[in-house]
TrEMBL record:
EC number: 1.3.98.5
Keywords of this entry: Heme, Iron, Metal-binding
InterPro entries xref list: ChdC/CLD, Dimeric_a/b-barrel
Pathway: Porphyrin-containing compound metabolism
Cofactor(s) of this protein: Fe-coproporphyrin III
Annotated Pfam families: Chlor_dismutase
Protein name per Swiss-Prot or TrEMBL: Coproheme decarboxylase
Catalytic activity: Fe-coproporphyrin III + 2 H2O2 + 2 H(+) = heme b + 2 CO2 + 4 H2O
Gene3D superfamilies for this protein: Apc35880, domain 1 (3.30.70.1030)
Record's keyword annotation contains Ribosomal protein: no
Domain of life from the UniProt record: Bacteria
Residues of the signal peptide: none
Length: 245
């Protein structure tokens, strides 16, 4: 499904560096309309409290990237893409966030849990790109497209060579869109879906064309569900994302 960009954490050629598992969470928030009726001073204080918690956990080593969907979706206003060394950090941080002045007016409309691991499929055009997929460094592009998906059970009944052949076609299509970076994470047994994919790019139309072409591949027949799909705009600082509310 496309080739992810190279990570700064990659080991030199021929040296396999063991990297820790990353736990990943995409959490989407909807702001209660009552919050917008508060006076400006109270709104600003609530946002500052929320941003302070985010920055505190960033200093503790949790990667947190902020995205806004105001004016794009009706069921989510902003999203935090979080990457941590364990799932407990997600829970601790969320408890703190929901007790801020802003947090009291937030509803979590979607939350996806996953983790990173090496893909079982080989990219024959560039086998070395498999290693960076184990460790992702997000937030480098203007737009992020996120969706969970599930394969049909028939997919898993196919032989490995048959699936690899279909993935060869899938990867070849992805290689035609180098401006789109793929981050694949896995959710087997820990959430309702099997994968969460996050595509980063500076060009919305490039991603749309990629998805349209992937629909025509053989592997697409074995997708059971791949919605909801989220279009998110990146903000380098969480306060900037909150200022869109």
């Amino acid at each position: 499904m496309g080739r992810p960009g190279q990570s700064a954490e990659s080991a030199p050629s021929g040296q396999q560096k063991k990297l820790p598992t990353q736990f990943v969470n995409f959490v989407f928030f909807k702001v209660d309309s009552a919050w917008r009726r508060l006076d400006r001073e109270e709104q600003e204080e609530g946002k500052r409290e929320f941003a302070a918690v985010v920055k505190e956990y960033q200093e503790k080593g949790v990667m947190v990237h902020s995205y806004s969907m105001v004016g794009i979706r009706s069921d989510a206003d902003f999203m935090l893409w979080r990457i941590a060394k364990n799932v407990e950090q997600f829970q601790e941080m969320m408890t703190r966030l929901l007790h801020t002045g802003l947090g009291k007016y937030l509803e979590i409309t979607y939350s996806y849990l996953s983790f990173t691991k090496r893909s079982m499929y080989v990219d024959k055009m560039d086998p070395e790109h498999q290693n960076p997929r184990v460790y992702i460094i997000p937030g480098m592009k203007k737009y992020l497209f996120v969706y969970p998906f599930i394969k049909t059970r028939d997919w898993y009944q196919l032989s490995y060579p048959t699936r690899q052949g279909m993935m060869d076609e899938h990867i070849q299509v992805g290689s035609k869109y180098p401006s789109v970076k793929l981050n694949t994470t896995y959710s087997f047994g820990i959430d309702d879906h099997e994968f969460v994919v996050a595509f980063e790019t500076d060009e919305v139309t490039d991603f749309s064309l990629l998805v349209q072409e992937l629909r025509e591949t053989e592997a697409s027949r074995y997708t059971l569900r791949d919605v909801p799909m989220f279009t998110c705009i990146h903000h380098s600082d969480v306060m900037n994302a909150l200022n869109t509310l």
